[in-house]
Records
---
Amino acid sequence: MKEEEPITITTVEQQKRHKHRFNIYVNGEYSFAVHEDIVVKYRLLKDATFTKSYIDNVVYEEERHSAYRAALRYIGRSMRSEKEVATKLSSKGYEEDIITDVLTKLTDQKFINDNEYAIALAKQRMRMNKKGPLWIKRELTQKGISKSEIQAALDQFDNSIEYEQALTLASKRWEIDKGEELAKFRKIMNLLQRRGYTSEVTRKVMGVLKNTDDVFFEE
């Protein structure tokens, strides 16, 4: 096997606009830029000599480090699912193997936890946004949450909670909306369906508003 020719770093230059990044020059010419963490970890100092394979590994680690920091910024603004983080990194042009490594690291560090994410999001949607279980299930599915994790998130609510939320929402709208009773009835029923409440709960709530247990509508 042919021995690799040594590569010598001739200049390590701090960037003016990004103080935590450094430009690396090889044989007097610009070669690549890295974060200061990579400079320290791989001892990228002036006059240091490395093989091409070593430098290639450094460049790869810089890319992974960059993706990791991008992911941290993204989840720092709001709790995210694993799929959302993967989609975000992909949109920034990171390779699949880099994304996989970053997701594994974030999961190991407990920065990503789809089970906890699903439970928290479901609680917010039900309590604050007055969404029903069908809406929550669709949203969690779109965010890449597994069926078992979705079920666990929905299991935190019993039927009475869904009913109370739906009844509160419907009652407020009943008081606010104007017009004929039948038109109001249909409008509020459609609202509950759009919000993702189940047919059983919707029928029960509308029955209360009309003072009857005999409420029927098409699925």
---
Amino acid sequence: MARSLLKDWTEEDYATVEHGILHAKHRLHETGIFSDENLCRIIDTHPEEDFSINTMGYDANQFEWREGDRNGVPAEKLLELVKNGHFWMNCRKMVKNHADVREAVNDIYNELEAKSPGFKAMERSANLLISSPDALVPYHIDIPVNMLWHIRGRKRVWVYPHFDFRFASQEVTELVCNGDLTEDVPYNSEWDKYALVFDPEPGDLLTWPQLGPHHVKNLDDLCVSLSTEHLNPRAIRRMHVHRANHFLRKTFGMTPTHVSPDGPLAHVKQTLTRVVGKIQNGGKARKKAYTYPITFKIDPNAPEGYVLLDEKPPEEIAPHLALDKAS
């Protein structure tokens, strides 16, 4: 029998997955997979194309997120820079690249499928997040269903009402699902009064429905989290509905209001986007998503641990900032 990495879950907890905001317990931090020694092993064996390192400012109201170049710095030195600097490392596709993490993620998802009514996790993936004290992640929405398994350190997470276009407009959501924007979206600190705020500690899980807006700030110490992502037919259909609405809005000047992933119209829109996508994107259902250009490189000898390669201001790097100015 597979081990259980879920701790003290109730029937209500299992039933809430994908349908509401859930704060629950897990045992991933007890596995030993995420010690400094193993983090270094993971970083140094992880494919370069699936690794990113970022830096950012200190104010969630100012978008200053930058994409960097590791510059060949070994994992032990990178981990030291993250512990003492202002960085966010992301090892993507952990399920594909690391057997111990793949086993743990599959144990979790298999248990959820067995005990959560109607739950199905296809296209399982995981990102390992290793980040500095006081580091932050800008306000954003995740296209797949996201589950944040916190392992080391302490952080604060603001989760905003889901399926509410006051906090990520329908047009912005369409642009993200269509790949025209990254998952970072316009933010207004006035919305914070509507957010639920959590301070997860090691052994805490946070999850919310697909496309739920949120942002994160570390509180102290090195933070390590595993962010798992999955899709299923309903989640995929939700994405297609938003893509179809974007196509109808952009091509025919329509103002579609239907966004439900359920019912005959959702299936029609899914078929539409699959056909249109293959015509427009060279046989692929979805074009490649926008990615940030690399604007700095790691340099352990620099005062802040990195040097800028490009002095462009953030508004010339991040397309969603133009939406802020236009609104």
---
Amino acid sequence: MDVQQLTAVVGQQSSKINALVSEIRKRVIGQGILLERLLIGMLTGGHILLEGVPGLAKTLTIKTLSECLDLEFHRIQFTPDLLPADLIGTLIYNQKSGEFIARRGPVFANMVLADEINRAPAKVQSALLEAMQERRVTIGDTTYSLPEPFLVLATQNPVEQEGTYPLPEAQVDRFMLKVVVDYPSRKEEREMLDKLISTAVQGDGADASSIAVEKVLSKSDLVTLRSTVNKIYVDERIKDYSLDIVQATRNPSLIKLDELKSLIRYGASPRATIYLTLAAKAYAYLKGRAYVIPDDIKTICYDVLRHRLLLTYEAEAENVTSDELIKRILDRVTAP
């Protein structure tokens, strides 16, 4: 299929994406970037980490997305006393048969919301790590495959650190994107206020989740959309551009930014190059294009790289953020 034919297919499928977004918009006001990144994860199968203070509709948006898809959804509230068995399941003794049977945990779902993931202890985080990477779970001496598609959407609060366990770098790297969720604009917040007050007057309480939404995409529809995203054309120069950006995070001297050496302790892993290209393909698809352009790479680059750059103490002392370093790298690397 050439680019022109693929463009026509993308145009035809855009109605399904638009219908999905419209349905989600019945509940969620604003947060366009958050919704767009969640759609990228849905279309690529990449796990997403959402970071933001409470009350920014992170959980609501994920829950609404799951309700609009014909997929099994489970929400897990992570707490310090959570055990791996609470996540993956455990063996239960059956007195009638005299045998142990496996009782599967909430991780056995198509979409898993790991709410406040940084409140879980290390054992629970490692259990989730196997599920995210291997897409399988071991209960007792038996390994079970997780359902397809399988997507983990995790949230964490960056402000409150009491009773939290920072995610290890190995686990953070498993997330395709780290999305920083910001406050809504004044106009969006006013619209939100009016909508919730209207809902409360109707007797449903001031809760957006009480607004009904319909399923608009089936599992077979999602498979079809993902197949189209995989076919999005990526030019060789775009691939080299992605590679140059990631390589520059490891060796800033390549782009004559020697001053970054003292700020970056470790650069992005090879997984970043793969995820950057895949996410750019999904982003181009959402924009109605059958090919990736350099601006797609630049737009999605921050979400792919910000959690993969390990900064030095010097950078932290100077209040230099990962996003600032990524911007300096993008400004220096020549786009095709």
